[in-house]
Amino acid sequence: MTTDSPLTIAGRVYSSRLIIGTGKYKSYAENAAALEASGAEIVTVAVRRVNLSDPSKERLTDHIDPKKVTFLPNTAGCFTADEALRTLRLAREAGLRLAEAYMERGVDEATAAQAGDWKLVKLEVLADQKTLYPDMEETLRAAKVLVAEGFEVMVYCSDDPVYARKLEEAGCVAIMPLGSLIGSGLGVQNPVNIRLIVEQSRVPVIVDAGVGTASDATVAMELGVDGVLMNTAIAEAKDPIRMARAMKHAVIAGREAYLAGRMGKKRYADPSSPLGGLI
């Protein structure tokens, strides 16, 4: 029997292999309900689009507690390395301010520091508005700077095994190849390349982008990846809460199937009951 180990990213251990986003929901409350249904323990946060620090306006942190869930600041909407660097540096400062606010409310220092320790980040540098495909040259450039500054970088990338290896060598703590274009719902279009990335990587590989429904998440996990990240598939479902629950089970099923080892494919029928010895 094959045993499994929990998902571990930069020394942090998670029981769920599903990561969800915080965009496109009708409200923060709906987002929080989807998070609970999904069982996810990490949420991505688009720093440029979400209010994290202004107490006079509704905040994501009013509905999702960063003391209980890992906030993963990302650089959604950035098209150059410099934009991405500036965004994540601001996110780090926002985290420090959040920690200070918690301490002012009486939260103990260790818990407050953990909640505001936003050095684990998701880097994405996009090439153009139409495809939102990653600009790998700019991505690699930004990754090297961020790692040098002490960030723990999870990186959205193309399904190119060569660039995936370069990003790992640069110090990224997770490689996140796209399954297909962001928000497309096309599912995994590149299984061969993703398997190649899984086989060569020593850090977690997480499929990021393209999942449209539960079967897509299962297919991704059956390739041997360590997790799946999704946003639109849940947020734009007709019933986001039910879809979040479906995705939870899909990721678990895909992981179990991968560990179990599927039967070999055959050209002809192979009866379940032996034919030998029949009367």
Largest sheet: 5 strands, parallel
Q: Which of globular, elongated, flat, extended, rod-shaped describes the shape?
A: globular
User: How far do the termini sit from each other?
Assistant: 37 Å
Instruction: Give the DSSP E fraction (strand runs of 2 or more residues).
Output: 5-15%
| Structural Rg | 20 Å
Q: Fraction of residues in helices?
A: 25-40%
- The SSE order reads EEEHEEHHEHEHEHEHEHH
Mean pLDDT comes to: 91
Q: Count of helices?
A: 9
The total of beta strands comes to 10
| Unreliable residue runs | none
Structural class by helix and strand composition:
alpha/beta
Give, in spatial order, the strands making up the sheet with the most strands: 5-4-3-10-9
Question: What can you tell me about this protein's structure?
Answer:
The longest helix has 24 residues, at 81-104. A hairpin with a 2-residue loop joins strand 1 and strand 2. The protein contains nine helices and ten strands. The strands form three sheets. The chain has a five-stranded parallel β-sheet with strand order 5-4-3-10-9. With 279 residues, the protein is an alpha/beta fold.
